[in-house]
């Protein structure tokens, strides 16, 4: 028996490859199928099943393309009713894979169709559970993503989750390995561990949601507390996973094509396409196409695209680091942004050499920023970190302006004022600056290195606010204030 976790850091997502006696299962695959097909060719195994733990909201799964390419059967647990053919397994049903078995455990709560898959080895011993978004390390799946007005509330789903954990998962032995669908960085939970797998016994001791003495009411209260609004693309991805989508090969064919500056500009105008610049942030600040938006490929690229580009069908033109154009198209498609129309061949150099206009954003060091603060040259500081980050430590003069909610809040700003933007490192603040710049804000200054660098300057410590303890009520109030 072979079990391999295939972890994708940008999405904090774990897919799984299980093989026994020449047969294989893949659980929760990403959109692009080539890595899985390459693995099957390498091992010579036949893909028997593609297991889906639920209708994912934070990425578009590759189950449809993978099934078409291999003939494997797509398996969901009870209550899944997609628009394509699947095998709908019953609760407790056992499916055989070579010398081992997989038992389907219906574990509603994150969503109603959520299931956990229990792998038993050749001797029949419980070996591992693949929990999807039901159980993470350190947390459980948020119960507010599948609520239906007038039908089911987040409290209803939290109650189902309590029952699922206590009846299906916690009775299993402590030495069972937990393989979740996500780790730290995912918006599918509140406090996920940086570890990507662990023992169930450790979770029974350390995970707040698995406390043995926890009442149902306490569980519902704690699991639903402090939930920030889900990224707007989540519901759209869930619908794609349920209803079907364009083949990834088709997405790649029209997205990964080189365009001359002339063609690039013509398509941008005729299709009202968004120009998405994914290069290094320092390069973008120095020179970029006017009205383009920066989301760097080397940051949390796909989640920020999903959070900030409201229309999932938005036509997109790409400016990418040389040689990484296909990667950009792929990572956009992972979160459902399939309407990519090509990339700028030759990059910004080709654009500038053609005589076309360029723009820039002032980008200063933390030391220069500190000097301007001391000289009283700075009137408006926008801290683009999350409310909890901001409350933990920030400049007294700063205003919390979270990047997550920029589309809600930019209208509060004055286009005639100068704004200094900072975050934790300079990445999120430059994304915010690019969005504001594209919306007509001309007086913007990004602070390189963000808060981490500003703290190391010689600004008086009296200029900092450093609370020692934050209650959940304070954090919730701060989130409500900026949403």
UniProtKB/TrEMBL annotation:
It comes from Neolewinella aurantiaca. Signal peptide: none annotated. InterPro entries: Metallo-B-lactamas, Mito_Persulfide_Diox, POD-like_MBL-fold, Rhodanese-like_dom, Rhodanese-like_dom_sf, RibonucZ/Hydroxyglut_hydro. SUPFAM superfamilies: Metallo-hydrolase/oxidoreductase (SSF56281), Rhodanese/Cell cycle control phosphatase (SSF52821). The keyword Hydrolase applies. This is MBL fold metallo-hydrolase. Residues 269-360, 380-463 form the Rhodanese domain. Keywords: Hydrolase, Metal-binding. GO terms for molecular function: hydrolase activity; metal ion binding; sulfur dioxygenase activity. GO terms for biological process: glutathione metabolic process; hydrogen sulfide metabolic process. Pfam families: Lactamase_B, Rhodanese. CDD domains: POD-like_MBL-fold, RHOD.
């Amino acid at each position: 028996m072979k079990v391999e976790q295939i972890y994708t850091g940008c999405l904090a997502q774990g897919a799984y490859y299980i093989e026994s006696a020449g047969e294989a299962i893949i659980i929760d695959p990403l959109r692009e199928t080539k890595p899985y097909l390459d693995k099957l060719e390498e091992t010579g195994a036949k893909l028997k099943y593609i297991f889906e733990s639920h209708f994912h909201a934070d990425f578009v799964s590759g189950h449809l393309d993978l099934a078409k390419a291999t003939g494997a059967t797509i398996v969901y647990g009870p209550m899944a009713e997609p628009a394509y053919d699947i095998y709908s397994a019953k609760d407790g049903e056992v499916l055989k894979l070579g010398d081992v078995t997989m038992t389907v455990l219906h574990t509603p709560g994150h969503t109603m169709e959520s299931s956990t898959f229990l792998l038993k080895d050749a001797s029949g011993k419980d070996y591992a559970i693949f929990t999807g978004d039901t159980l993470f390390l350190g947390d459980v799946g948020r119960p507010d993503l599948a609520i239906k007005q007038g039908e089911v509330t987040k409290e209803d789903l939290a109650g189902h989750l309590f029952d699922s954990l206590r009846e299906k998962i916690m009775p299993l032995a402590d030495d069972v390995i937990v393989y979740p669908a996500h780790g730290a960085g995912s918006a599918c939970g509140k406090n996920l561990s940086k570890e990507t797998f662990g023992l169930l016994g450790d979770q029974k001791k350390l995970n707040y949601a698995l406390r043995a003495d926890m009442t149902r009411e306490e569980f519902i209260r704690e699991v639903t507390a402090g939930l920030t609004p889900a990224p707007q693309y989540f519901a759209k991805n869930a619908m794609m996973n349920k209803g079907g989508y364009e083949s990834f090969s088709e997405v790649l064919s029209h997205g990964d094509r080189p365009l001359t500056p002339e063609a690039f500009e013509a398509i941008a105008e005729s299709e009202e396409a968004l120009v998405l610049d994914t290069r290094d942030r320092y390069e973008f600040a120095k020179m970029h196409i006017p009205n383009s938006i920066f989301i760097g490929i080397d940051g949390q690229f796909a989640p920020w695209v999903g959070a900030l580009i409201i229309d999932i069908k938005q036509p997109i033109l790409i400016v990418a680091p040389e040689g990484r154009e296909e990667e950009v198209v792929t990572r956009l498609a992972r979160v459902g942004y399939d309407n990519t129309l090509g990339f700028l061949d030759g990059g910004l150099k080709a654009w500038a050499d053609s005589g076309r206009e360029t723009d820039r954003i002032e980008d200063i060091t933390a030391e220069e920023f500190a000097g301007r603060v001391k000289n009283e040259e700075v009137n408006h500081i926008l801290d683009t970190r999350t409310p909890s980050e901001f409350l933990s430590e920030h400049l007294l003069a700063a205003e919390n302006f979270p990047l997550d909610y920029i589309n809600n809040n930019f209208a509060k700003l004055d286009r005639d004022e100068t704004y200094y933007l900072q975050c934790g490192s300079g990445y999120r603040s430059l994304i915010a600056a690019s969005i504001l710049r594209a919306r007509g804000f001309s007086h913007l200054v990004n602070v390189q290195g963000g808060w981490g660098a500003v703290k190391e300057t010689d600004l008086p410590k009296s200029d900092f606010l450093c609370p020692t303890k934050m209650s959940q009520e304070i954090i919730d109030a701060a989130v409500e204030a900026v949403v």
